[in-house]
């Protein structure tokens, strides 16, 4: 039996180590090559994506934005300066005694006027010049209708004049003349009927503070001065009201006071009412 030499065994072991080292070096080289190719691929793809995004932005700037601005410009011109969305009709709401033609003629709304350029304040001012109109609201009803919501004045008294009988509302505004005194309304007797007249305001304050059943008994409201209001009632009775101060308290004590027999009921001082 032969014994292998130590030299030969050592050579074989060194050769095995060298072979393993070369294989490890080859694997490391392959890994570096693959990482390099992967990084180059990602760089290429990133550049392609970046280039694609830049191209899309250029395309939008070149076509989309100008097209959008053109559409907006055309729509603005159509809405503001053409009758495309213009007034086609006028609708009157709330008027009972006023004729619709009178309202629309006074409003003076031109057909075809662009709805967005409608002069609502001007229309309101013109309609308020009608004495019978207490308030008015102008509304746009798209696409082409203008609504005029009218609140008419309600008469609560009448005043005798040389021209006839003037109807007066709760604010003391005379707004219409009629040939005969309206049935059921009391007469207002003051020096000058006007909303800013102190005697007119005192008389209307006294009258409107009364309850509806008690107001129905009033035949006349007389105010020779703002602090000297007198209510004339049915059956020849009279209420000395005085000034408009504490009108609510006076109106509260008057109904039980009227249950007592008498002709003159004095509530000028509501703490000390008298009957005579």
Automatic annotation (TrEMBL):
The chain crosses the membrane at residues 63-81. It holds the Pfam family POTRA_1. Essential cell division protein. It comes from the Bacteria. The keyword Transferase does not apply. Residues 8-37 have a biased composition (Basic and acidic residues). This is Cell division protein FtsQ. The keyword Cell cycle applies. It is found in: Cell membrane; Membrane. One of its GO terms (biological process) is cell septum assembly. It is a single-pass type II membrane protein. One of its GO terms (cellular component) is plasma membrane. Keywords: Cell cycle, Cell division, Cell membrane, Membrane, Transmembrane, Transmembrane helix. Residues 85-153 form the POTRA domain. Residues 1-49 are annotated as: Disordered. Belongs to the FtsQ/DivIB family. FtsQ subfamily. Gene3D superfamilies: membrane protein fhac.
């Amino acid at each position: 039996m032969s014994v292998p030499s130590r030299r030969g065994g050592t050579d074989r072991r060194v050769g095995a180590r060298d072979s393993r080292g070369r294989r490890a070096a080859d694997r490391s080289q392959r890994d570096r090559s693959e990482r390099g190719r992967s990084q180059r691929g990602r760089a290429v793809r990133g550049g392609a994506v970046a280039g694609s995004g830049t191209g899309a932005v250029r395309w939008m700037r070149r076509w989309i934005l100008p097209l959008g601005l053109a559409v907006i410009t055309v729509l603005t011109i159509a809405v503001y300066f053409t009758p495309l969305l213009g007034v086609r009709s006028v609708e009157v709401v709330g008027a009972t005694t006023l004729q619709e033609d009178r309202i629309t003629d006074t409003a003076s709304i031109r057909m075809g006027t662009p709805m967005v350029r409608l002069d609502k304040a001007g229309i309101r001012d013109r309609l308020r010049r009608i004495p019978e109109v207490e308030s008015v609201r102008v509304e746009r009803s798209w696409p082409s209708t203008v609504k005029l919501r009218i609140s008419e004045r309600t008469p609560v008294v009448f005043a005798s004049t040389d021209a006839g009988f003037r109807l007066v509302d709760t604010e003391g505004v005379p707004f219409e003349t009629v040939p005969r005194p309206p049935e059921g309304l009391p007469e207002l007797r003051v020096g000058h009927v006007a909303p800013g007249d102190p005697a007119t305001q005192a008389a209307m304050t006294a009258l409107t503070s009364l309850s509806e059943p008690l107001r129905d008994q009033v035949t006349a409201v007389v105010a020779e001065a703002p602090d000297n209001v007198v209510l004339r009632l049915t059956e020849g009775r009279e209420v000395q009201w005085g000034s408009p101060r504490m009108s609510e308290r006076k109106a509260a004590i008057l109904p039980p006071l009227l249950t007592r027999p008498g002709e003159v009921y004095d509530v000028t001082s509501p703490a000390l009412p008298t009957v005579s």
